[in-house]
Specification:
The complex is a heterodimer of chains A (129) and B (99).
Chain A lengths: L5 H5 L8 H28 L5 H9 L1 H29 L3 H32 L4
Helix pairs in contact in A: 2-4, 3-5, 4-5
Chain B lengths: L4 H14 L1 H11 L4 H27 L6 H31 L1
The chains are: A mainly alpha (129), B mainly alpha (99).
């Protein structure tokens, strides 16, 4: 292990030992996204109209609220991992890369929390006018 | 999808949970000219493209489909299938509104 070029410093060390989990989670969430987003597309397309009252009634049903929440977790997890790899691969500056990954995590976790809270509020309170 | 579709989805859920007025405001953006249709057609195409591309990559992950001809065929089939599926979905939506 030399102290010269980047490739010289890592040559011979073997794998980082932690890439496979990331890769597998990306695939697992891809499968759950496939099922859950197709469910959303088919459900939305088949609704007769999209007025507020019907939306609240629809989202209050456990068989809509639960898959909707699961879908939010699955989607945000998948996009967080996917955009993380995009940033790691295409942003050369370490400081910018670090900042973008922090922003990405805020966006993914904050967005998922906001979405799940909204669904929970609709499901539990039915929304007072 | 991550930067346009998902924020729209969360905005939609937030607007519903905040009450009829917020939802009307959300809809007023969608009913601004053809904006809603442009975005929804675009997002549905983006979704189907990503979905078929993801399915193609599942096959590639399994180690299959790397022959040049096969690989090229599926790389062309993915966007075509996405266009066809998007078209079929919107045909269904339009026909539902007419009949």
């Amino acid at each position: 292990m030399g102290s010269g070029t980047n490739i010289g410093r890592v040559r011979g060390l073997g794998s980082a030992q932690e890439g496979a989990h990331h890769w597998i989670v990306q695939r697992v969430t891809a499968v759950s996204n496939l099922l859950l987003v197709l469910w959303l597309v088919f459900s939305l397309v088949r609704l007769p109209q999209y007025g507020h009252e019907l939306m609240v009634e629809w989202l209050s049903s456990p068989l809509v609220a639960v898959p909707m929440m699961l879908m939010l977790v699955s989607i945000f997890w998948h996009l967080r991992i996917g955009l993380q790899v995009l940033i790691e691969d295409y942003v050369p500056d370490h400081g910018v890369k670090f900042g973008l990954i922090v922003l990405l995590n805020f966006f993914a976790i904050g967005g998922a929390a906001l979405g799940i809270f909204s669904v929970a509020k609709i499901a539990f309170t039915g929304v007072a006018a | 999808m991550a930067l346009v579709g998902v924020p729209l989805l969360v905005w939609w859920l937030c607007a519903i949970s905040a009450g009829p007025e917020s939802y009307e405001y959300f809809l007023s953006w969608f009913n601004w000219g053809y904006l809603g249709y442009i975005i929804l057609v675009g997002m549905s195409f983006a979704f189907f493209e990503h979905m078929y591309s993801g399915l193609r990559h599942f096959v590639l992950d399994a180690g299959a489909g790397y022959e040049l001809q096969t690989n090229k065929m599926w790389s062309i089939a993915v966007p075509l299938a996405a266009i066809l599926t998007t078209g079929a979905m919107w045909l269904y939506i339009v026909s539902k509104n007419i009949f």
